[in-house]
Amino acid sequence: MKFTIITGMSGAGKSQVIKYMEDLGFYCVDNMPPMLLQKFAELCDQSQGKLEKVAIVMDIRGGEFFDDLVSNLEELERLGYHYEILFLDAGNEELIKRFKETRRSHPLSMSRSLEEGIQKEREKLRNLRQMANNIMDTTGLDLQSLKEEIRNLYIEGRKGRNLRISLISFGFKYGIPLESDLVFDVRFLPNPFYDKTLKEYTGDDPRVQRFVMDHEISQAFYDKLLDMIRFLIPNYIQEGKNNLVIAIGCTGGRHRSVTLVNKLFQELTEDENRVTIHHRDKGKGKG
Q1: Cα dihedral sign for 194, 199, 202, 204?
Q2: Which positions bind GTP (predicted)?
Q3: Within a domain: residue 207?
Q4: Is residue 253 part of an annotated ligand binding site?
Q5: Residue 47 assigned ligand-binding role
Q6: DSSP tag of 58
Q7: Read out DSSP for 143-169?
């Protein structure tokens, strides 16, 4: 018997994940107080093999009780029960967007702003994130993609590697994505912003892509970047890394970074990697 503890940021998709895991045959419990974990494990143990896969959501909704989760997990391990932690995360802007769309309140924003509540939650979850066996960044994932990620992670024998690569384009003027593992600055590449016929378009447009890539420096950089990423992927997999976030930034996040991320997405997908793409700042401004 093995327990999967699902935790992470509010708004990162825990409610959806617990539904998907129930479909995969897990016995699922949502929002269990950590103090009940040991007793619950003993009850599961008495099922004589009927409960082999158990998933439990425990998060900040537990209030003061949640602060004892780490010590309760240590006690669970001391008693000989095996568990792993799935930590769900998303970028701050994505979380803010989701809360505004659903018009729900963040558990820690009752007496502070939404942004302050999210930051406070990150601080409270820092130790759990470091303990996690799997960290899943749901930024830019639709529900079907999230479901597929869960299936890849928890169905043995499925084709595909556990490493998921998240590609993010961004503008340095709006800040570097906090979730980034690797950050590349492409502000030295030719800029379509100064071409009046291309300024209003983005790196999704073939004309912008040709402008950016039809230069020796652009192609040389891209070839070296792709070669390095292909070198890193198997080494990250060997290390046991589950999620790799690669962020590419230009000035405004509309032209050069979008172009490079689109090319990388195509190449890495053709290599049969699990890749998601998110153009964070493509719709902002005109730079």
Answers
A1: negative
A2: 59-62
A3: yes
A4: no
A5: no
A6: -
A7: HHHHHHHHHHHHSTT-SS-S-EEEEEE
Cβ-based neighbours of 51, under 8 Å, separated by 6 or more: 1, 27, 44
pTM for this model (two decimals): 0.65
* Residue 140 annotated as lining a ligand binding site: no
Do the annotations mark residue 11 as ligand-binding? yes
- pLDDT tens, residue by residue, 57-95: 999 988 877 888 889 998 998 988 989 999 999 988 889
Flag whether 58 is marked binding.
Answer: no
On whether 9 is known to bind a ligand per the annotation, the reply is yes
In a domain, 284, yes or no: no
Mind giving me the DSSP string for 65-131? Answer: GGGGHHHHHHHHHHTT-EEEEEEEE--HHHHHHHHHHHTPPPTT-SSS-HHHHHHHHHHHHHHHHHH
Say if residue 128 is in the same domain as residue 212: no
160 in a known ligand binding site? no
Give pLDDT tens digits for 161-207.
568 899 999 999 999 998 899 999 999 999 999 998 999 999 999 99
Q: Quick one: DSSP state of residue 255?
A: S
Going by the DSSP 8-state scheme, the letter that residue 105 receives in this structure is P
Domain extent, residue 86, equals 2-154
